[in-house]
Amino acid sequence: MGRSVQDSTLAGISRRTVLKAGAAAAAVTALPFAAPSVLRAQTPAVKIGILQPVTGALAHDGDLGRAGAEMAINEINAAGGIKSLGGAKLEMLFGDARSTPEAGTQEVERMQAEGVSAIVGGFASPICLAASQAAARYDLPYLVDVGVSDQIMSRGLTNTFRFSPGFGKVTQVALDNLTAINDKAGKPAKTVVLVHEDGLFGSGLAKLLQTELPKRGFEILETIAHPTPARDMSNVALRIRSLNPDLVIPSNYYGEFVLLARTMQQQRIKPKGIYAILGGAASNGRFVKEFPQAAQNVIDCNHWHDPKNPKALALRKAVEGQGKSFAYNVSLNYSNVLLLADAIERAGSSDRKKIIEALNASTFAGHIMPYGPTKFVNGQNEGATPINTQIQGEDIKVIFPDAFAEAKANFPAA
């Protein structure tokens, strides 16, 4: 059969013409408006750095902080990610601060190189101080999870935010609450021994207490400093025994707090109360579980979740369901990641400067802490406040203020 006009025409098209046509078609296909949706690139993830000390002296606390952050990230991603960015997921870049400021700074540099939009964590005050300073060089938003030293926030770094209260606010509330608890019991406590770790956190807090306790009618018999880590508290306990104070007020990290409490128990030292201020173990379920006798009736003024918030209770149940103990830094890291995600959502961007602007304008209320409205002033959340807990039986109970209380204070305890 003879060829049709169409066949003849096709035969006459040169190879060069076909190649040009193919290239043109490919170029059109590459245009965003012409590409089928299934071929479009997914919305890029937003990288956030999570900095915690998961090795070294602070490893237990760092592990809990990481757990809280991971739970928040998983929850946000499961709920659809950052909606203003087309459902972008949060991608965690984890850094081990290795319980030292130097390692924390190294991890910030690595996170900066890998393009994170913000960092959450640090835990200890010295780590937070150094890490936030390193982040400031890159205008990299840094959310302090726990670090209570007010030096962290007094430097005027525009990249640094602290959602929780610092030790100035914690001390004020702790002393107000101590006075109220002591007055209600008939003022049985008059003398105090302070025991603190000798770093940035403990030394700063002790100095503040030395000024404020006498104003409230308490006599400080002695202030005892110890290193972190500490391997023995026998001499500290013997000194407490010889002074026989009504109250012992410890301010230290988990290991040293447990060691002091156990040594006091073994030496049968029974003051009217152990009233911790930011006590490293006093608000930690592991202490209650492993050393119930040494832990009994210890009062703490510290970070803690709202015990009447269903979301907080669900978080605690989930953590304990993994076989982990529950402590305040789980709730703080969980809430800080939610706070950051809220800022990114409102900024509609992963740009660092826009996130900082959004944090400064935050009125975030989706957390699980017993706080008032979120309002950052020079990076510090003015709505943050601590509460008082007491170890009673096999649990940690909120005893003050009344709005959040689950139980009445058992004071004096001896």
Explain the overall architecture.
The protein has 414 residues and is of the alpha/beta class. The protein folds into two domains: 46-165 and 310-383, Response regulator (Rossmann fold, 3-Layer(aba) Sandwich); 168-302 and 388-400, Response regulator (Rossmann fold), CATH 3.40.50.2300. It contains 14 helices and 14 strands. The chain has helices spanning 5-11, 15-30, 59-78, 101-113, 125-136, 167-184, 200-212, 234-243, 254-266, 285-290, 292-295, 310-321, 328-347, 352-360; strands at 46-52, 90-96, 118-121, 142-144, 160-162, 191-197, 219-226, 247-251, 273-277, 299-302, 376-377, 380-381, 387-392, 395-400. The strands form three sheets. It has a seven-stranded mixed beta sheet, sandwiched between helices. Helix 7 links the parallel strand 6 (191-197) and strand 7 (219-226). Helix 3 packs parallel to helix 13 and helix 13 (328-347) packs across helix 14 (352-360). 49% of the residues are buried. Mean pLDDT is 91; it is low at 1-40.
**Helical segment tally?**
14
- Taking the alpha carbons of the first and last residues, their distance comes to 113 Å
Task: Write down the secondary-structure element order.
Answer: HHEHEHEHEEHEHEHEHEHHEHHHEEEE
Q: Looking at the chains present, what oligomeric state does this protein adopt?
A: single chain
Percent of residues in beta strands: 15-25%
* Shape summary: globular
**What would you report as the Rg, rounded to the nearest angstrom?**
28 Å
CATH superfamily of the largest domain: Response regulator
Q: How much helical structure, as a percent, in the residues?
A: 40-55%
